[in-house]
Amino acid sequence: MTEKKTTWARVQMLLIASVFFGPLAVATWMYYSGGLQPAGRTNHGTLLEPIVNIAEELPESEISKQGDGYWVLLYSDSEACKEPCKEALYTIRQSRKMLGKEMERVKRVFLHGESSPDTVFLAAEHAGLITMRDDDLSKFLNNKKPAALTAGGYFLLDPLGNLVMYFQPEIDPSDMVEDIKRLLKFSQIG
To answer: 77: helix, coil or strand?
Structure first.
């Protein structure tokens, strides 16, 4: 009689364990078999790893002074600012405006090449845009952009001068804003 009770107790214990471990085993099997893997990341831009600090890498760069205490949305174009460049400047302007009350935490920087941009155009269309030429910074950014991604996008620097994200040129501005808002929400700096 005790043997029967012991057997029944073991069966009950196995049933209880299967209620807990059964769904876990099925979920693990589905995940690793490729059946139902989650989409992965929630960000639209690319996190740049390892994190590098611009001031440490390029101590002479003017960007450290311009962005001190602010998030910086930076667009770099070494060519003359033609239509694609103007569209990119429009994108960073509108993206900043879409941040709403948080827009004061973000500065826009246009890193241009040898030819100076049209100052009349910039004053009329892009008030508050910081323009600068820094060939060393341009080379540095080109080297930090993941090789598999399209060139001509946007970089995001945090208030400490760390290079945080890269957004491809064809990104939807609302997607870029979503990523920036998320960073601003959880940031204790800037």
So the answer is: strand
- CA dist., res. 108 & res. 101, Å (int): 16
Range list of β-strands (E), 37-128 = 46-53, 71-77, 106-112
Q: Which domain holds residue 4?
A: 1-39
Tokens 């995940």, residue? Answer: 31
Same domain, 35 and 50: no
Residue 84 shares a structural domain with residue 164: yes
- Do 75 and 142 share a structural domain? yes
Residues 17 and 2 in one domain: yes
pLDDT, one tens digit for every residue, the chain (190 residues)? 577 778 888 888 878 877 777 787 777 766 666 555 555 556 888 888 888 999 899 998 888 877 778 999 999 988 888 899 999 999 999 999 999 999 999 999 999 988 888 888 888 999 999 999 999 999 999 888 888 888 788 999 999 999 999 999 999 999 999 999 998 988 877 6
Place of tokens 């491809």: 168
Residues 57 and 10 in one domain: no
Burial class (CB in 10 A: 0-12, 13-18, 19+), 43: middle
What's the first-to-final CA gap in the chain, in angstroms? 73
Which residue type sits at 2?
T
| Number of residues that this document lists for the chain | 190
